[in-house]
Amino acid sequence: MKKVLAAAVCVVLAGCSNEPAKPAPSPSAPAGGGAATGAPVGGQFSAGRSTPVADPVYPQYGNPQLDVLHYGLELAWKPDTRTLTGTATLDLRAADDLREVRLDFSGAYQIDGLTLGGATVTGSVAGSKLTVAAALHRDEQQALVVKYHGTPATVAMPSHRPDVEPLGLTVTGDGALWTMQEPFGASTWYPANDQPSDKALYDIAVTVPDGWTAIAGGTPKGHDGNVFKYASTVPVATYLTTLAVGKYTQETLAGPGGVPLTVWYRPGADDKALPYLRKSPQYVDWLAARFGPYPFDSGGVVMVPSESGMETQQMITMGLPDYGSDANFTSGFDADLLHEYAHQWFGDAVTTSNWNDLWLNEGWAEYAQFLYEYERDHQTMDSWEAWARTTDAGLRKRLGPPGKPRADSFAESNVYICPALMLHQIHKKLGDAAFFALAKDWVQQQRGTAQDRAAFIAFVNKHTGQDFTQLINAWLDSPTTPK
């Protein structure tokens, strides 16, 4: 996610790579899921298996007793009536014995039908929860089909950032759609286990009116008339999914190794961003040279009417904030887009398993951004560290240390600057060769998984043969800037 640092010329985003790493093939079912087509739920979606954990920051979202292996979403949008109609097929694995199936889902929708394992079941939506009256045994796998319709409604973002906007699926005045949903908000457009530790595979098909386009995360699978299709065969956390519907123009660029990078923009509204969107292959190449092959088989950016940006997987969601001047836009949007591309490695390929460890996503993307900026601007990292230490001290005093962020202060600058400084200390101790080898191996060896602080510390110590436990914990937990 883009960072806005109040009172400083500092805005942030994410992602990048050299040659596209071909993920291990995972069969991709048509939108609607395995059970809907008569295919077995089990091995077909085994790549979507996760070990969900209860989130310590937002425990009201997610169900750690449930593992969604695959989402098959068949959606239709009618802008004239502001109606979203959906059939969501969730291929589920019970992580524990369950007396009922409980998922996150917006009360803005009316349920039109529910089946589990092909049998009709009863359920209800109360608040932000869909509860289905059906028991499952531990490791039992079934397909839940939810049919619904309604007008999307957003939820509040728990943050004081200057670019705060409502989370989830947003309807614009002209009937277009767009979404950003970190840390939660996927459940504003489909029933979801809305927590970062439960990554799943996706197939998405969206029907739109004539002349409109639907854009989603994952790999484009073409369109059949007005039905646009996308598939994610690499696991995705719910907050990293995206959907945009509107009147878009498309350009496809060749990234490193031939990986296709598609940019979607609204003529007139997004013209200012076009020179940077067209630099996407350069961003990916710069990042891949330092952090290893781009981790997906496609990528790109979709522009939306937002004040922020989001590292949604394989299809970055970008807005056009007011940078204050043309000079600030030139440097700021360039760095922000690089930041969001960096997240494709740090946050998307490897995702934090809980929101206490948001630093694990943002610290890496922030550090990549500053390496890029100071190379671009011919500055020194010593000058950046002097500025960052002063900034870090103020952030820790105002917001606390990055390793335990406040629930009402999501994604504020302490989880960007402070861990980026920590990575800089590791970089200085290891030198370029060992540091970038560590970064590459962290992504490539953990790709497709959700990780936490303990896993990162264990990896760093094993990879380097040195004990960085005290250094990492001090930078994440200290109320003041470590010496």
Automatic annotation (TrEMBL):
An example Gene Ontology biological process: peptide catabolic process
InterPro entries (UniProt xref): Aminopeptidase_N-like_N (IPR045357), Aminopeptidase_N-like_N_sf (IPR042097), Peptidase_M1 (IPR001930), Peptidase_M1_aminopeptidases (IPR050344), Peptidase_M1_dom (IPR014782), Peptidase_M4/M1_CTD_sf (IPR027268)
Co-factor(s): Zn(2+)
Domain named Peptidase M1 membrane alanine aminopeptidase: residues: 284-475
Lineage: Bacteria, Bacillati, Actinomycetota, Actinomycetes, Micromonosporales
Chain intervals for the UniProt region annotation (Disordered): 19-48
GO molecular function: alanyl aminopeptidase activity; metalloaminopeptidase activity; peptide binding; zinc ion binding
Highest taxon above the source species: Bacteria
CDD domains documented for this protein: M1_APN_like
Enzyme class: hydrolase
Name used for this protein in its record: Aminopeptidase N
Keywords associated with the record: Aminopeptidase, Hydrolase, Metal-binding, Metalloprotease, Protease, Signal, Zinc
Keyword GTP-binding on entry: no
Annotated signal sequence range: 1-21
Family as reported in the entry's similarity comment: Belongs to the peptidase M1 family.
Cited PROSITE patterns: PROKAR_LIPOPROTEIN
Domain Aminopeptidase N-like N-terminal: start-end pairs: 176-240
GO cellular component: cytoplasm; extracellular space; membrane
Entry's EC annotation: 3.4.11.2
Reactions catalysed, as given in the entry: Release of an N-terminal amino acid, Xaa-|-Yaa- from a peptide, amide or arylamide. Xaa is preferably Ala, but may be most amino acids including Pro (slow action). When a terminal hydrophobic residue is followed by a prolyl residue, the two may be released as an intact Xaa-Pro dipeptide
